[in-house]
Amino acid sequence: MSRILFLLVPGVHLLDLAGPAQVFSTAADLGLGQTLTYVAEQPVVPTAQGVPLQADTVWPELCPDDLLLVPGWRSSGLSSSDQWLAPDTLVRLSEHHAAGGTVASVCAGADALGRAGLLDGRRCTTHHDLQDELAARYPRATVVRDVLYTLDDRVVTSAGIASGIDLALHLVAAEHGPAVAAQIAREMVVYARRNGHERQESAMLRHRSHLDDTVHRAQDAIDARFDSRLPLGGLAASVGVSERTLTRLFTRATGLTPLRYQQTLRLERAEHLIAHGATVEHAARTVGFEDPRMLRRLRARPTLPTPATG
């Protein structure tokens, strides 16, 4: 994602826009190269909360690496906003996707994707108050309820309001890795959460759903060097607490001891290597185990339950 282009519609909800924008701007602050651009069909866009926004009316040239995102807006129903996006704007949405780009929506923004023909034959979601209407307007779409977001062939939709943050964090994790997404979530003081019914694909995100800064700093250190020897004393000293305090805080926040967390990261990476053809012995050495038998024992353990959030 080299450019994040937000398409603003009159009555746009500030959090629908600001949540993803904060995620991507924080990614840019970390040096990941994102550029944020805002376009609309008029230079001044009224928002649902009363703060007017300025936007460009001339679209930049987009490439397949760019993300085109439509935040949601306030309306009495989806049909009431039919006049807000001109046909050529909807064509831009469909053409970007046809060229290999990713399109996304927050809340009512899914209707813009539907009008552009991008929901037909795909899974999608929107705010729970709008799901029935979305399903009725686009009967060829599969509206998924009770999820934070959906992804289907470079068409990404989220449930609305704060769920746009979850969508953006997922996109960052997919492109730059879960450790970066976790770092951004920590900067924003939000949970690095995923859809509850889906498999938590990364331990770095799965065990970051807490707000303990000491534990986050310890996790930062482990994430960066999980394949190295990390004595508990050195780890505790690096975050300014005793070994006993770190173990207590870490276990309370993540459900794991620091050592078990490190082993979980090693095991996850080793499983990835093995799935791509590496031998157990090679995978064990790569992730930092001196003896492959340790990796074999960890692989034989039952899967750890996902920690509760909220």
Features:
45% helix, 310 residues, Arc Repressor Mutant, subunit A, Rossmann fold, 13 helices, 6-stranded mixed beta sheet, elongated, alpha/beta
3D structure, described in words:
It is a single chain. With 310 residues, this protein is of the alpha/beta class. It folds into 2 domains: 3-179, Rossmann fold (3-Layer(aba) Sandwich); 202-300, Orthogonal Bundle (Arc Repressor Mutant, subunit A). The chain is 45% helix and 11% strand. The chain is built from 13 helices and 10 strands. The strands form 3 sheets. The chain has a 6-stranded mixed beta sheet, with helices on both faces. Strand 5 (67-70), helix 2 (87-98) and strand 6 (102-106) form a beta-alpha-beta unit. The longest helix is centred in the last third of the chain and has 18 residues, at 258-275. It is elongated and about 65 Å long.
